[in-house]
Amino acid sequence: MMSRSIVRMLPLCALAILAFAGIGCSKRHRISIQSDSCWIVVIDKDLGAVSSDCGNQNFRVAGEIHCVAITNRDTLGFVRVRIDDGPWAENALPLGTAEICR
Length: 102
What we know:
4-stranded antiparallel beta sheet; alpha+beta; 1 helix
């Protein structure tokens, strides 16, 4: 039986593998998420590059990133996302989506 922390890391590992696929030495980006609810994040509209969690998270991704969209999975709360140290995109609507592009 896998521990809960390993199970929670699987989506992040899959996201990292997809980001590294076909990429040699490339730039690394940081995706920062702030939220007081649960959410799902999609990178560059690629449904293979999806992760979901709750609360604040930071991801490091290698390769080019153009857009990141985060959707609130709850009817209350907010979601915020940014790439590297860029501007924040925020949404506080029920089931709302915030998207930021570089």
